[in-house]
Amino acid sequence: MRHGIPSLGALQAFEATARLGSFSRAAEELSLTHSAVYRQVSGLEQRLGVQLLGRVRRRLVLTPAGRDYAARIRHHLEQIGKDTFSLVARAGVGRSVHLAVLPTLSTVWLMPRLAAFSRCYPDITVSLSVRTQPFQFGDHPFDAAIYHGRQLWPQTQGIRLFDEGELVPVCTPALAASAPLQELRHLHMSTRPDSWFDWYRSAGLEPGLHVSAGPRYELFSLILAALRADMGVALMPRFLIDSELACGDLVLAASHAMPVQEAYFFSYPTANEPGEAVLLLAQWLAQNQKEIP
């Protein structure tokens, strides 16, 4: 044990035993003997001073502390596996970028541009992971991020890709014809809890108490699904629903559009020198942010 951290072998033995419910099955998975796994787990309990496993009628069971610890260890072992796979993949494929992205933006806006980028730079592999909240680059294995905000994150450098523009109230044609906007159920973006109140005030209207009573969703993609299911009216960035408006699947529930100051940024940490692949991707996205539909 180094600085209080058990050995990786002991943690693997315990996690496998907890998951499989058997020393024998864990030993088979880890290519060890039954006695070796048993010693590893017993030694772990002794070092921690906590009972992790017990027996009920000859059946191996986790204690409450063991159940919680096993879940945490499983998470960390999986992350080690992902980090290792990423490292090996980078070494094998040449230039690569691991990019943190917003889910709906990546589907609607980023993917068509990545397809074109890959045709221009076939030797650069771009991997995506979803993040909806700000994070510290030092705590995550990302080379760069695309996110929504008013400015670059602290301790990063990068570019402003494009302004969000405006938020517009939209719903299906059937729902728009059924009642005035003020009487419809209002759908909310959980990360933008005040958007509807801001919209009403910018339109010179007073929001009623019912405005805040609608459901909240973490992703714009979930709001889009709710809109298509006639579940209510929502404020959406116009650029995300241009195609739905053009084909008539969604309509404006009111003519007022609320300008917003936020934009979408591409940034990378200042702590590390950015790789050539990161800089090429940033430059390419900035140059092609409008041209590709």
Structure description:
It is a single chain. This protein is α/β, with parallel strands linked by helices and 293 residues long. Helix 1 packs across helix 2, helix 1 (8-20) packs across helix 3 (34-48) and helix 1 (8-20) crosses helix 4 (64-93). It has helices at residues 8-20, 23-30, 34-48, 64-93, 103-120, 173-178, 195-202, 220-228, 242-247, 276-287, and strands spanning 53-56, 59-62, 96-101, 125-130, 144-149, 156-163, 166-171, 186-189, 216-217, 233-237, 251-252, 258-259, 263-269. The strands form 3 sheets. Strands 7, 8, 9, 10, 11 and 12 form a 6-stranded mixed β-sheet that branches. It folds into 3 domains: 8-89, Orthogonal Bundle (Arc Repressor Mutant, subunit A); 94-164 and 262-287, Periplasmic binding protein-like II (D-Maltodextrin-Binding Protein, domain 2); 166-259, Periplasmic binding protein-like II (D-Maltodextrin-Binding Protein, domain 2), CATH 3.40.190. The model has no long low-confidence stretch (mean pLDDT 89).
List the helices and strands and how they pair.
Blueprint: H1 8-20, H2 23-30, H3 34-48, E1 53-56, E2 59-62, H4 64-93, E3 96-101, H5 103-120, E4 125-130, E5 144-149, E6 156-163, E7 166-171, H6 173-178, E8 186-189, H7 195-202, E9 216-217, H8 220-228, E10 233-237, H9 242-247, E11 251-252, E12 258-259, E13 263-269, H10 276-287
Parallel strand pairs: 3-4, 3-5, 8-9, 8-10
Antiparallel strand pairs: 1-2, 5-13, 6-13, 7-10, 7-11, 7-12
Helix pairs in contact: 1-2, 1-3, 1-4, 2-3
The CATH architecture of the largest domain would be 3-Layer(aba) Sandwich
Average pLDDT level: 89
Provide the number of structural domains: 3
Structural class by sheet pairing and helices: alpha/beta
Task: Write down the CATH topology of the largest domain.
Answer: D-Maltodextrin-Binding Protein, domain 2
What is the percent of helical residues? 40-55%
CATH superfamily of the largest domain: Periplasmic binding protein-like II
* Rg for CA atoms: 25 Å
How would the global form be characterised? extended
| Strand content range | 15-25%
Structure annotation, total helices = 10
N to C succession of SSEs: HHHEEHEHEEEEHEHEHEHEEEH
Q: Identify low-pLDDT runs.
A: none
Termini Cα gap: 55 Å
The largest pleated sheet is described as: 6 strands, mixed
The CATH first-level class of the largest domain comes to Alpha Beta
In terms of quaternary structure, the protein is single chain
Q: How many strands appear in the DSSP assignment?
A: 13
